[in-house]
Amino acid sequence: MQAEEQALTVLGRIAGERTQDGVAADAREALRALAGRRFNVAVMGQFKRGKSTLINALLGRELLPSDVAPITTAVTVVEHGTREAAVVHFADGHDEPIEPGRLRLFVSEEENPGNRKGVRVARIEMPSPLLATGMRLVDTPGVGSVFASNAEATREFVPRIDVAVVVLGSDPPITGDELELVRTVAPGAGGIFYVLNKADAVSEPVRAKAEAFTRRVLRDALGAEPDRIIHTSALAALRGGADAGVAELTRSLTELAAGAGAELASASAARAARHLAMHLFGAIELERAALLAPTDELERRLAAFADAMRDIDDLALAAHARARAALSYDRSAWEEEEERFLAAARRRLLGDVEADLRRLDGAGRAAIRKAAHESARAAGERLIAAWRERAAEEMRRLRESWTGRASERANALLERVAAAAATAFAIPVARFEPEALALDAPPPVFGFFADVIFLDPRTAVVAAVDLVSPRAAVMRRAAARAAAAADGWLRRNLNDIDQALVAWLDKLATGLDAAVQARLDAARREVLDAVAAGQRRRADGEAAVRARIDELDRQRADAEAALALLPQREPTPALR
How many domains does the chain have? Predict the structure, then answer.
């Protein structure tokens, strides 16, 4: 028996003894994956990017439900099997075998809105050469939709991801939700593939711009540019057409499975074992403290912990207030930059219009006025696109800065919770693992160029004056009128972007406060639940307490021995 299998078996047994059902279920799942040398290839991204359709295209048949509405509400795993079968695993621990054709009833938003049926994961087996390599294709609910529970299901699955296929698009390109997803997945994934799907729906210039934008955003976020971005038309491939992108992705995944599948499966199992062990250790030590302390002493310790938590809650409130003040955005520098941009944009726009008009050879007066109008519109579109990108860059900078500071604040508070538990119950409590916050406050994706009504340059008065004016004067007047009309359009668009920035900043600050508080509340519950388990044992009498102490000692020793067998692997080199 290899070390990972032995560790997971022991940890699963201990979790079962302790009725920590979630840990036990996770251990069983990790063992099952390891036995089949299986690893998870999670297909992820914003809702309606075509994730389910892409999986269907990779499998060569329409297996997963897809539709015009946001569809996937629960995680669906497709793995190799000798025959086609499906089972639904529910959060309450029971399983239900189903016909694969009934999958929609459990994983679609239409049939299972907000995952009211409590589906933990749906699993499908089917014969497939691609899946026979050991990979399991995982369809995840989309992030960024109106269904918050769907995005949460995807985030909960992140620790089980071995390889990610991030499905993006061209309209819009990568969103804030998707970028945050990549940031979260990247540190632990053994490979990341980036796919620009629905390539057949946009022109080649748009695809090229979308890829360039995506590369730039990923480079800024991860510190390295992705090696490959694959353009696919999954729906066309599924309908029987040849698609080079789907073929390239299939080939790349197959090569990864052949070259690193076993390593990915083993590394995934070892990570799972270490993660599960930390949960067990913390619960064991807290239960021990509850068992050993005299009743009145335990009550005193619980009261001391409650007092400490009230102090920590007060600190959290003060920290929230300080954070709000620190996160206030000084708009003066931004407004100055905006005014400089607007002044330069006016000059640039007028210069572009005049240059375009000078290229007209022999055009009539009406043609000159029309050309000025069209040139101003095109120049305005280019300028606003540049400012939209600048605003998105500023939002990315603020999100990274603010989220980083909030994560530090949350982790500092969690350190205090661990210290309070250790002091109150006179035991060493495992440090709560620090991590970056994930929250639903993506930078808005600004719309593409939207036309507005220009002042009509073809008024009767202008036309009459132009008839008796020299051609050069007509050109100057047409350029000036078009530029003046575009100036109002520039200001309106800049104002829209500013309003989006203000609204997003408020949402980000509110979301960070909520995320910090949620993490603090979860840590408090973890401590108190473990102590409550010890209190229940005490009610059975002194002999039961002694027996339970011996049992806890054995559980911890067994878990430590199992972990000691695990190799200290470096993560598989990731494909970026």
Answer: 2
The answer to whether residue 435 sits within a structural domain is: yes
Measured between alpha carbons, how far is 206 from 212 in angstroms, rounded to an integer? Answer: 10
Cα→Cα distances 403→303, 394, 436, Å: 33, 14, 7
DSSP string of 257-288, one letter each residue: HHHHHHHHHHHHHHHHHHHHHHHHHHHHHHHH
Is 283 within the bounds of a domain?
no
Q: What digits encode the pLDDT tens for the residues 78-102?
A: 999 889 999 988 876 678 899 888 8
CB 345 within 8 A of CB 493: no
* Strand ranges, E, within 21-179: 39-44, 76-80, 85-90, 95-98, 119-126, 135-139, 163-168
pLDDT in tens, 111-130: 777 777 878 788 899 999 99
Does residue 560 lie within any of the structural domains? no
Which residues fall within 8 angstroms of residue 251, CB to CB, at 6 or more apart? none
- Residue 36 to residues 107, 262, 302, 567, Cα–Cα distance (Å): 25, 9, 46, 20
Residue 20 CA to residue 487 CA, distance in Å, equals 65
Rounded Cα–Cα distance for residues 162 and 30 (Å): 12
Range of the domain at 219: 40-264
Relative to beta strand 95-98, strand 119-126 is unpaired
CA distance 537 to 307: 25
